[in-house]
Amino acid sequence: MSKTTSKASKTIESHLIENRVFKPAADFSKKARIGSLAEYRKLHAESVKSPDKFWGREAKELHWLRKWTKVLDWKLPNAKWFVGGKLNASVNCLDRHLEGPRANKAAIIWEGEPGEKRVITYRQLHREVCKFANILKRNGVKKGDRVLVYMPLVPEAAIAMLACARIGAVHSVVFGGFSAESIKDRLADSGARVIVTADGGYRRGQIVSLKQNVDHALKGNDAVKRVIVFRRTNLDIHIEPGRDVWWHRELEYVSADCPAEHLDSEHPLFILYTSGSTGKPKGILHSTGGYLVGTYASTKYVFDLKEEDVYWCTADIGWITGHSYLVYGPLANGATCLMYEGAPNWPEPDRFWKLIADYGVTIFYTAPTAIRAFMKWGDHYLQKHDLSSLRLLGTVGEPINPEAWMWFHKNVGHERCPIVDTWWQTETGAHMITPLPGATPCKPGTATLPFFGIDAAIVDDQGNEVPHGEGGKLVIRKPWPSMLRGIWGDKTRYRKQYWSEVKGAYFTGDGARRDKEGNFWIVGRIDDVLNVAGHRLGTAEVESSLVSHPSVAEAAVVGRPDEIKGQGVVAFVTLRSGHRPGEKLKEQIRKHVAEAIGPIAKPDEIRFAEMLPKTRSGKIMRRLLKQIAGGQSLTGDTSTLEDLSVLTKLSKGEE
Ligand code: PRX
Questions:
Q1: Contact at 8 Å (CB) between 110 and 155?
Q2: d(CA 558, CA 581)
Q3: pLDDT above 90 covers what percent of the chain?
Q4: How far apart are CA 245 and CA 571, in angstroms?
Q5: Which residue, by CA, sits nearest to atom 22 of ligand 1?
Q6: What is the pLDDT of residues 150-181, one digit of tens each?
Q7: C-alpha distance across the termini of the chain, in Å
Q8: I need a labelling partner for 440 at 20 to 30 A (CA). Which of 268, 479, 640, 653 fits?
Q9: Which pTM was predicted?
């Protein structure tokens, strides 16, 4: 086994050539749905050549209230999947399982951070969803209305989502770590008039005051008519008469009978906000039929799901991973899902391993940033626990560095479990490039090959495919069922952002290269988007929160390599006249960003500067700032720089 060597390509540099290959074990392949590379290739070729046939077959496994007349109607950039079909996502995740032996199977096994345990069967989950759907109706929610969900990771978060789906309301989940300001923006953009939240949630031994954040967000807002509050922590909270109601009180007024709406396949299922390269988060819109078929099929094949699996996806429900692989994908497959509310290191850094041992988790899907944190905390935390139930591991969110992959493989998978490194995005809805565990030979650090139906390619600036080994833009050349249907309220931005960069293709915003086996190696974002702990942060978004601080005149944000988080946030800041740089001000500004966006966006470092390096036309030269932030020596062309002395000062760290 040779280690890594280095290589540079013309368009994007990539420094890692990894030669270690891990083939699926024979006994795993034998039992897997797709048991060989040849089988994968055959089915992949069919799925790309005849998507109607492949996706039609997958869709038939779900429950349709009316069958579609056409699988795909495609007019770039607008796709309609399963045209004319009617279905309901909650029926597919719940009712569909009640006829047979899954009725009393555990759908959700939940553990709260303080240690409470709950097991909810499919029958019980169905009942709770129906009741909450009736609560929504009672509180004025109608088909097509947007409902903002701001919850801790409790089963009620999934119940709220599925209840929206049941009545055709569009949920927009806001991650519980986001701030009041973020709620405000998302409320304004989505036009939601009802919020579902909780008094609080537990995180690292503390209570996160969710309801209080909602109260702040609603100051001066009279568009929101109702806030439904789930009692999780018993925290003393404000209840606004006429606006706020308790979830448990509302339950007294509703029945458990709620027939599901018959929804058009293209009916919107949810909006989820994500960062782009401008300051304004984009409301990514997903539809019902295509999204459900995509998440259903990928969960089934990529996790090679079996009836007896105990499946655990550690993502929060506020991210796309929580939507697709904690709720819709696994529940549509009738899986038993573990859900854990809190931090991985509470009360001790072995909490995840303890959960795996306690519940006999068989499939464990997590993020590289978490793996790097586990590595740092130490192997002894794993050795105390029996991890022998595990049979498959997965990662998502950012490129996994080969050391982290190897550590995961050895210490968690005990060299026995395949690892599926899944590349996808909020916009793609479901896995796009990923190994199939019984079929694909893996190399640490590559997401390997495209999933069924996915026609991925790497192209240069002119849109021509680059030769293997060279870097370029990662694009998808054909529509796929779970693709976004648009950006909420912004048709032009949708076309411009995704379908204009490369003619005829969807542009992912990522750079990648392929090796000689055809594996895709993602090298990171091409646009001004950071990936911090597996989550996207637009530099412009952080910059606009920085300049909203009264002492900040101008700001530029760049990423720098970070051992745990993948990328750390470095902010270069110039101050308004009359304000003096200092440690106290740095702290205030960091806190200000955390309040404006959420702790995830808090700059790791603030560097005050007299001026930012700009071109003569006034564009900030981020490339140079990145080199400074990463402690590298300055290279490349600086001839367009307006004032060279700025750079010297910045590199010396002078304020
Ligand atoms: O840059 C890629 C990176 O995360 C981006 C998508 O971020 P988001 O929409 O927040 O969704 C994250 C969860 C799906 C991608 O454009 N990314 C995600 N997964 C991987 C990855 N980069 C490399 N390898 C992955 N497995």
A1: yes
A2: 20
A3: 84
A4: 41
A5: 398
A6: 999 999 999 999 999 999 999 999 999 999 99
A7: 49
A8: 479
A9: 0.92
Q: What are phi and psi of 175, to 5 degrees?
A: -50, 130
| Residue closest by Cα to atom 3 of ligand 1 | 398
CA distance linking residue 28 with residue 30, whole number of Å: 5
pLDDT by residue (tens digit) across 31-63? 999 999 999 999 999 999 999 999 999 999 999
> For 639-653, what is the mean pLDDT?
71
Q: What is the dihedral of CA 256, 257, 263, 269, to 10 degrees?
A: -10
Residue 378: which region, alpha, beta or left (left: phi > 0; alpha: psi -120 to 50)?
left
Closest by CA to 564, choosing from 297, 356, 372, 343, is 372
* Residue 208 near residue 176, CB atoms below 8 Å: yes
Q: What is the mean pLDDT of the chain?
A: 93
Nearest-angstrom CA–CA distance, 208 and 228: 17
Rounded average pLDDT over 181-191: 96
Q: What is the mean pLDDT of residues 17-36?
A: 93
Atom 12 of ligand 1 has which residue's CA nearest to it? 397
E strand or H helix that includes residue 476:
strand 471-476
Span from the CA of 157 to the centroid of ligand 1 (angstroms): 23
Q: Quick check: CB of 531 below 6 Å from ligand 1?
A: yes
CA of 426 to the centre of ligand 1 (A): 8
Confidence of residue 618 (pLDDT cuts 50, 70, 90): confident
Whether 182 is in the pocket of ligand 1, judged by its Cβ within 6 Å, is no
The structure tokens listed for 564 are 């745990």
Q: Is the pLDDT of residue 383 over 70?
A: yes
- CA 399 to ligand 1 center in whole angstroms: 8
- Measured in residues, the chain has a length of 655
Cα-to-centroid distance, 397 and ligand 1 (Å): 4
Cα(41) to ligand 1 centroid in Å equals 24
Q: Which of 396, 487, 507 is the pocket-test mutation for ligand 1 (most atoms within 8 Å of CB)?
A: 396
- pLDDT band, very low/low/confident/very high, at 17 (cuts 50, 70, 90): low
pLDDT of residue 655: 54
C-alpha 421 to ligand 1 mean position (Å): 10
Structure tokens at 607: 């560097």
